[in-house]
Amino acid sequence: MKILIIEDEEGLRNTIKAYLEKEMYIVETASDFTTASFKINDYDYDCVLLDIMLPGGNGLTLLETLKKMHKRENVIIISAKDSLEDKITGLDLGADDYIAKPFHLAELNARIKSVLRRKHTQGETSIVLENVCLFPDKRIVKVKEKELVLNRKEYDLLYYFISNPEQVIHKMVLAEYTWGDNIDQADSLDFIYSQVKNLRKKLKQSGAIPSIVAVYGFGYKLVCKEED
Prior knowledge:
This protein is α/β, with parallel strands linked by helices. It contains eight helices and 14 strands.
């Protein structure tokens, strides 16, 4: 799962990033309004942690932009401004939650899990597609009640596919989602081919009904039966 931290305070930003990476999230950061605007326009995230007061602009403007673009990111406002007016404004604009500084990282993580659970599983603790079941809180996958062992990238890919079933997904989108900012250092997308190949093999061997099919010249799609 991929998270964007928009926070101008370097120490807090780095602390949150390090903590969430230990929790197995893919984390990107932005320290100012301009950088944040670029990222929310060009990339997709599962959750955005959004500070209100930013160099170059206001975080609530970014929230308005996200909602006008009809993007699916969950947004949690993180701000030292704990006034009722700011909280109401943020929630009215479409934020999913609000947490005031200072806060415990464990509480932030719990809130992230909560909004993601509401987004993808309608409040349930798992995501089910045919005979495949993902448990995002535990990063566990089961096929026909038997655990399927995946590495971190394979799990992230499956999570993205199963959250977007029957949709053709460009290979670059998959690369950006599973590798974050590090994708800029890649010379090619061969690593995506390799990870998807391994994931497809494991799904097939486990007897999973959903399967990943290649869309020539573009990317891949998760389907629930082989196409004619």
